[in-house]
Write a structure and sequence with these properties.
alpha+beta, 4 strands, 4 helices, Alpha-Beta Plaits
Length: 131
């Protein structure tokens, strides 16, 4: 009886260890983040905001875009360090600088700018690289 219990416990321990290693964090790949903030000419227009958001969604079709997040200002505490005067933001993840350069020159991106630039009065871009 003791030996079958030891075998069971040993097998369970090995199975658990194997499961846990599959959930172990993998080393993070360094990525380039491209964060863009848009101020609409007509900030009160839900129609303009929605057109811009729909246009931004098309950018996810560009192969070098690894992830795309589109957002609007969160209803968080108003503090002097919080910038929430923008209308829409986009956050993209790229593998590297050449991937971001490919995105900039891609026909889908150029069409987005051509079709939607009349909606905004200001755009601010923050590009950053993982350290």
């Amino acid at each position: 009886m003791k030996s079958s219990r030891r075998i069971f416990l040993g097998t369970a321990a090995l199975a658990t260890a194997g499961t846990l290693t599959s959930f172990a964090p993998k080393p993070a790949k360094k990525m380039l983040l491209h964060h863009v903030f848009f101020w609409l000419k007509n900030p009160a227009s839900a129609e303009d905001r929605n057109k811009l958001i729909e246009g931004l969604r098309t950018l996810s079709k560009i192969d070098s875009v690894r992830e795309l997040h589109i957002g609007v200002p969160a209803d968080t505490e108003k503090r002097p360090v919080v910038e929430n005067s923008y209308s829409v933001s986009e956050l993209m993840f790229f593998d590297d600088t050449p991937g971001q350069a490919t995105y900039q020159e891609h026909p889908i991106h150029k069409k987005f700018v051509e079709d939607h630039s009349a909606l905004w009065e200001k755009v601010v871009v923050f590009d950053s690289m993982d350290v």
